[in-house]
Design a protein that fits this description.
Strand order of the largest sheet of chain B: 2-1-5-3-4
Shape of chain A: globular
CATH class of the largest domain in chain A: Alpha Beta
CATH architecture of chain B: Roll
Largest sheet of chain B: 5 strands, mixed
Radius of gyration of chain A: 22 Å
Helix content of chain A: 10-25%
Helix content of chain B: 10-25%
Mean pLDDT of chain B: 91
Bound molecules: flavin-adenine dinucleotide, FE2/S2 (inorganic) cluster
Oligomer: heterodimer
CATH superfamily of the largest domain in chain A: FAD/NAD(P)-binding domain
Strand content of chain B: 15-25%
Structural class of chain B: alpha+beta
CATH superfamily of chain B: Beta-grasp domain
Largest sheet of chain A: 5 strands, parallel
Number of domains of chain B: 1
Mean pLDDT of chain A: 96
Chain lengths: ~400, ~110
Amino acid sequence: MTETIVIIGAGQAGAQAVISLRAEGFSGPITLIGDEAYAPYQRPPLSKAYLMGTFERARLFLKPESFYADAGCTLIVNTAVTAVDRATKTVRLSDGRALSYSKLLIATGTRVRPIPCPGAGLSGIHSLRSIADVDGLQAVFRPGKKLVVIGGGFIGLEVAAVAAKHGLDVTVFEAMERVMARAVSTPISDFFAIAHRAAGVTLITSTGVDGFEGEGAVSGVRAGGKTYPADIVLVGIGVLPNVEIAAAAGLECKNGLVVDKYCATSDPAIFAAGDCTWHQGRGHGEDEGNWMRLESVQNAIDQAKHAAASMVGKPKPYNEVPWFWSDQYDLKLQIAGLAWPGDEIVVRGEPSARKFSVFHLRGGVLAAVEAVNMPADYLVGRKLIGEHAKVSAARLADTSIPIKNVVG
Amino acid sequence: MAKITFIDPKGERRTVEAPEGWSVMEAAVKNAIPGIDADCGGACACATCHVYVDPAWAAKLPPKEEMEETILDFAQDVTKASRLSCQLKVTAVLDGLVVTTPKNQH
Ligand SMILES: Cc1cc2nc3c(=O)[nH]c(=O)nc-3n(C[C@H](O)[C@H](O)[C@H](O)COP(=O)(O)OP(=O)(O)OC[C@H]3O[C@@H](n4cnc5c(N)ncnc54)[C@H](O)[C@@H]3O)c2cc1C
Ligand code: FES
């Protein structure tokens, strides 16, 4: 009997799974189901060039529409999977249909975490995850408007940078004491805080938002005992994994759908990939086996490749070095590996020159690199992290030694 | 629009129409040209969009910027003809461009 593969979630991981299943030699029918109106597209430009208006919509799509048909993949958009029935191996769709699968891939991504404050339902309060979200935001993104960004994470800061360049009057609230605190080290946070302030952004850290004011539309944001005027609010306080259908089907879910190193769930017919998974990260020594959820293009692509390999019976353990980037103004932040509290930190180069890197050593082994406008440091770092290379902190800090020659 | 021809390592040619302002990488990806993964979508973070530019065309291309030079250093089997296709902007001058895709991007 021919095997049929169904993929839930037409995003970065879903599209990659189609590509990889074919590359792995799977020849049966594939159905890719997404609840958005579009074929799979890239999200990173949404808060960068696409919001800026310098990147037309057609450029967002990962593959041309014809790709799916050519690959023997039925792409169903505007349709959600509402239930997975593991006993009969079928998925139920929001349009009433039921499809059967031999193997199922869950690649449902995440959704924006709602802000639990009074007034959160006022109009003018936006979030940013999809093309539809940017369309709504762009319509009001006019020079002189007062934009309040809630959350100094990657998306909030990327939007702040685009808005500042666009001539909006921007205020950013961050509840923690530094920006991007969950994802980057203190020197990087401090550097980006300075860059945003220099661009005219009002950045207020250690301050959570208490509520919104306005009649129908938002007109102000209450925070730290004051009210700040606002025409537009962007909430970027993180995301929640879309795992409800998996949980309802009895699959184990934590802060994501639990998968093993092979992107397999506890049901031998069901696999998962991308932002929605709770998985063990690549590790070394004591770090081996940390559980995590990653929100990145790298993880979506690499897990989809591994899930595809597992689905065709050629499992390989997922051990890739995580990598990520963020663009803010002329600053290209590129990150490889995962930093942990307690790492030894080595700064290479001068932050004031807007070109520098922060290396993280754990027991002398390179664990992570965060590079600002230093692609060579990022790429060498990524390679050395993959090799679990021991690196001398003194040599790393010495910019007279080219990064390529730091080891060896 | 500019016509760009991609030749794969086996010698098979595929010609696509590339809108001006896009990158050569985007023209490849949007036309499902095999051999260009471009995982990062042009963010200079993946080095999986390496191509070899036909010698007749090399001089017509803008010189490499520092970012491209650096990243190419990490691609496989780099030669003098190597470019990062995500950094090559399509212009009318490039109408007819011919590039070859490498055997391996990783
Ligand atoms: C604004 C923004 C900027 C970003 N910038 C970067 C960056 O610079 N670098 C980087 O590495 N990463 C970045 N990311 C993260 C990156 O885009 C994600 O990690 C990646 O898209 C994850 O892929 P995925 O396939 O797991 O999820 P998604 O791409 O989110 O796809 C999941 C899809 O499944 C759909 N879905 C969910 N439930 C169902 C259901 N029941 N039925 C049908 N469909 C369903 C969703 O609507 C969605 O379309 C950014 C994300 C955003 C939002
Ligand atoms: S597409 Fe990633 S470096 Fe060119």
